[in-house]
Structure formats: C-alpha cells, structure tokens
Input
Amino acid sequence: MDLDELWRRTVENLVREGLIRSDSVRRAFLKYPRYLFVEERYKKYAHLDEPLPIPAGQTVSAPHMVAIMLELADLMPGMKVLEIGTGSGWNAALMAELVKTDVYTIERILELVEFARRNLQRAGVKNVHVISGDGSKGLPPTAPYDRIIVTAGAPRVPEPLVEQLKPDGKLIIPVGSYHLWQNLLEVTKKKDGSVKVKNHGGVAFVPLIGEFGWKE
Ligand code: SAM
Output
C-alpha cells in the first residue's frame, strides 16, 4: 500500500473514533499528510498513530493529538494564530490550511527552524512564518492572536501568552510536569481580561523550555 493510501486510512480512523469532528480538519489532514514532515527513514511509519522522532531529539506529535488540539482550537478562516513549538512544521501547515491566512510559529532550536522551513517549502505551504526564538514569551510584534497553540509542556500557563490573546481568544496548552505528563488546558480570555480554564485530560509532550517555561 502506498503512503497516501495508508494516510487516508489513518484519517478515516480518526474520523470514526470521533477525534476528527469537522470537515475542515479532515480536509486539512488529507491535504498535508504527516509523511511530508518527517525524515525519509520515518516516512513509512508516518501513518501510525504515535509520535515520531524529528531532529534534535524532539518529536512530531501523534495524529490523534494534533486532531484533538486543532478541534479544540476551532480555527476559522481569517483568524490570527500563533503556534509555539514548530518542530517539523506539520501542525503549522494544518493551521495555515484552516485559517487560510498567515500563521506565525516559533521554535527555539535552530536546526528545527531550518527543518520546518524546508518541509513547508517542499509541501508547498506559503503562508507560514517560522520564527526562531523563545515562544514561552509569545510573539509580541504580531499580537494579539485569536488562537495560540502550544505544542510543548509548560510548568504553568505563561502570562505573556494570555496577555497576547484577543478578548474571546483561546490558548491550547499542555501544563504539568517536566517528565512527560501534563493536562491539556483550554484557556479562554474573557472580555474583562479574566480567564476560564477547561481541563481536557492527560497528555504527554516534550518540555517547553524558556523564560516562562522550564529552565534549561
Ligand atoms: N508542533 C510540532 C510539529 O508539528 O512537528 C511538534 C512540536 S514538538 C512536540 C515540541 C517543540 O517545541 C520542539 O520542537 C521544541 O524544540 C519546541 N520548544 C520547546 N520549548 C520551546 C520554546 N520556549 N519556544 C519555542 N519552541 C519550543
């Protein structure tokens, strides 16, 4: 079976399991298969519903995890969005397909900034801006955002990220321990600036390392 057919089956499984709920997320997954964002030797595993290695000892998340976060984020065309933790660039490509406008994504490891840019270019994604830096501080120049998705685990909700949300904006972030166990939080900023936090349960991400994350 070829990579596209394997991927199509993965996507349909996620739909059957109720993890992909919207047609827009389904179409984005079909447009940008995960195998486009991993090294050659991992392409044959890209349809498996588990994380895969990417350079610099990091990972690209499992398809079900990416689906859950994108469905929670409820991305609509025209939204201003920021991703923290570019990694392979796969989730940023999916976000770009959903918002149909510029996406900002920030990565602290230079090797991955370059890896993601290459992957995005090869996949034909034009509206993703990969920025090198510490995303735990957010990205003030292009703030405020309708949505911020953090794909690394933080010790607590970084204050700058809440500040950089628009009213009614949402932050999706894993918060918990350094050693691969966090709760996936949906943080909504109300019009008066206060926040509502909804816990979506246990997840396992690599650590968010930075000024408002874990110390190196
Ligand atoms: N979203 C990625 C993808 O689609 O491939 C997967 C991200 S991987 C699970 C987490 C990434 O967060 C790693 O690449 C890691 O280097 C990055 N990271 C950790 N702390 C960071 C920080 N403070 N700022 C930016 N990136 C960070």
User: Anything to note?
Assistant: The chain has a mean pLDDT of 97.
